[in-house]
Design a protein that fits this description.
There is one protein chain. The protein has helices at residues 49-59, 73-76, 79-86, 98-101, 104-110, 182-193, 212-218, 220-223, and strands spanning 7-12, 15-22, 27-34, 39-43, 62-67, 90-91, 130-133, 136-142, 151-155, 160-164, 167-168, 171-172, 201-204, 210-211. By secondary structure, it is α+β, with helices and mostly antiparallel strands. The strands form three sheets. It has a six-stranded mixed beta sheet with strand order 1-2-3-4-5-6, covered by helices on one side. Strands 7-8-9-10-13-14 form a six-stranded mixed beta sheet. Strands 11-12 form a two-stranded antiparallel sheet. The longest helix has 12 residues, at 182-193.
């Protein structure tokens, strides 16, 4: 994997992460692990499964789960294949994105993505649920707007979140897709993400990550400039 295709960060000494851009959408598939146990999770395997498997091997970690932030094709296209290959469960998103997971094949066809499959996760996630990997535990925040079933994974101890396509560095998720609502999305961000605290760093579904504080001050969708 080239350096451009792999960026590695340490959220703290307790966790590690590798971002693996996948598909033509350059979606941030994220390999996240607990440093103590080297147990790992793949978040949003949108496609390019061989590339994801190489990153897992190079990171020398053991993947035990797949987590999904929402049901759009660029985030779930490789989920069924990766689940079968690794024999691990899929957790997430919220049940309200079932209509998307039921039509992965037709969604993929519109973008020339072959080899994708419709599937049902092993566990739907709700507001207030928790998921864990090794010694790391994440709270689930249901943040609809980009899609009806979008969820955010939040670790209070690490002061870290994976927000999928809810919030971006300088932008927010698009809301012109089926089930999207800009008003609902902004309510999710202002009501659930901003209160987490300005020091929260996050990985998002596309592009560079940021912090809640940076977005509160400069994101035009939150400051009223858009």
């Amino acid at each position: 994997m080239t350096q451009d295709a792999r960026s590695e960060t340490e959220t703290t000494s307790k966790a590690g992460a590798v971002i693996i851009p996948v598909t033509l959408f350059e979606q941030n598939c994220t390999l996240l692990w607990c440093e103590a146990s080297k147990k790992a999770v793949v978040i949003d395997p949108g496609g390019d499964v061989p590339k994801i498997l190489r990153a897992i091997e190079q990171s020398n970690v053991h993947v035990e789960k797949i987590w999904l932030t929402h049901g759009h094709i660029d985030h779930v296209g490789g989920a069924a294949e990766l689940r079968d290959t690794l024999r691990v469960p899929i957790e997430g998103p919220h049940l309200n994105d079932k209509f998307l997971l039921d039509h992965v094949v037709s969604s993929g066809a519109r973008f020339g993505m072959t080899g994708v499959r419709d599937f049902t996760p092993d566990r739907w996630l709700n507001e207030g649920d928790q998921v864990s990997i090794g010694e790391l535990t994440f709270d689930i925040l249901h943040c609809p707007g980009h899609s009806p079933g979008s969820v955010v994974f939040y670790n209070k101890e690490l002061r870290f979140a994976h927000v999928g396509d809810v919030l971006f560095n300088g932008s927010v998720g698009r809301t012109d897709l089926p089930g999207g609502s800009h008003e609902t999305l902004i309510k999710s961000i202002t009501g659930k993400l901003l209160p987490l605290g300005d020091d929260i760093s996050f990985i998002c579904g596309h592009g560079a990550g940021s912090t809640i504080g940076q977005e509160r001050m400069t994101n035009p969708f939150l400051t009223g400039r858009m």
